[in-house]
Sequence to fold (193 residues):
Amino acid sequence: MKLLCFVALFVSGFSIPLFAEEHDSSMAFDLQTNWGGVYVGGSFARFDGAQTYGLGPEFDMLGDMSGGFAGFNLQNGNFIYGAEAAYSFGAVSQECCQPNQFTDMLDLKARVGVGVGDALVFGVAGWTLATWDEGGAPELASSGINLGVGVDYLLNGRFFVGAEYLFHDLEESASAEFNAPLQSVQIRAGLRF
Fold:
């Protein structure tokens, strides 16, 4: 919960200028930063959450993943919309029972945002595919929705850094054997083309 509050405060700090009633004319020019086009980058994410098997016990989940992403933005004035695919690998494990863990995730996301100066404040929604590994047992596919918010900040015409909060609601795909609501905070850096 502390993680969610931090991300909400961080993102709202960039969105405050959107709702200001007064601004000087130089800010209106800055709002036209070009976010359109293709981009790629790398990321590091910290996960936490829980996992339940049917009506059975709940297991705390914790872990880190790193990976890469690619996407494109279309721009209409200050409004930006597009799509992004992100692949991450690592270990998000049951704290009690390693090596029971998610080993990789593929996030497919639609993005909608607003450019504010050199910042892009955005929301995302999409679908996640993940691999669950219990050591000697066969790996299980899981999937579910993802929802999130984030901000990217343009350092110059091409390079950007950012942060993203993402909620995943994952279920084992074949038989809904388990449910795993997870949240992550990601730091990211990328290059626009």
Summary: Helices lie at 2-19, 25-30.
